[in-house]
Amino acid sequence: MSEIYSPEPQPPGAESAGDMLRAATARVLGDLLTDAARETLADGATTQELWSKLEELGLPSALAPEKFGGFGVPVAEALSLLAVAGEYALPLPLADTMLAGFLLGKAGMEAPSGPLTVAPRAELTIDAGGRATGWAWDVPWGRHARSVVIVAETAGRRVIVAVPQSAAKVETGANVAGDPRDTIRFEAAVVAIAPAPFSLLDVRAAGAATRALMLAGALRAVTAMTTQYAEERKQFGRAIGKFQAIQQSLAVLAGQSASATAAADMAADAVAAWGQVLAPAVAAAKIRCGEAAGTGAAIAHQVHGAIGFTREHRLHHYTRRLWAWRDEYGREAEWARRLGSHLVAAGPAGLWPAITAI
Q: Structure pTM?
């Protein structure tokens, strides 16, 4: 895998901090995510060795403020690491830990150590003593998280809390890729709490941006994998990639991947800017990446044929996560409604400025 997805070599002195981080991330993932390791990580298991390597690079805290242990690199550069994680279909909560640290940092809170996660949906009440009761569902990697970060409206105020693992009861679940998506329940839990200086929509948009970046990375890997297979697989005495129908499919796949990469970059820039354009820009990106994921996965399986559906072939590690990440933090229909509402609200005079601002 590593020889296929290694970054293009840079001329001496041309590498930015982001380039070096991405290259280091790719090396670690390429070395450690072997086929045997993927089998170990199947069905929601984790490996401390791989997570420790990610922590050694500082990746889980890449989006945290510098005063809380972050890199100090631009937000968009830090988010680009998730595209690398997507290229290796990383089955660990890197995106969720990064997002949790980012949100806690914006609220002036230091993130707990270890794997973290953010609840996409939750109900929460805070009693007079500051203890939290509630539940959250579809929580990524909930059973493995040291703390679950929740942003919710309660008693007329919007708060962010970090519920420690020790205070939570977990009902296990999984997405289509087999990665944990759990239900978390807690009662009168002692939690870290602060006012949330952002909306629930902002949180959902930031989460959708992480999935858009991973979708784009996974599509790049699927495109490389499918092109290589078409060059190697022989039928009627020649490589199937020589047939016009296959060439057309590969061209469509490459186009979908390129579009997703551009859209994901736009989402990363929107999160970095963190302003009024956040939700509309992420909406457009998540729509485009979701559409590309559906089309790309279908083409990849068509070109690979029956072998691509087997457990032994690595393609399914990618396509199942394409399908899973497409669902998370909102599918195309949800974000299309939000984007449409935004453009309608701009009115006739504001329509073009609203479009060009995205």
A: 0.93
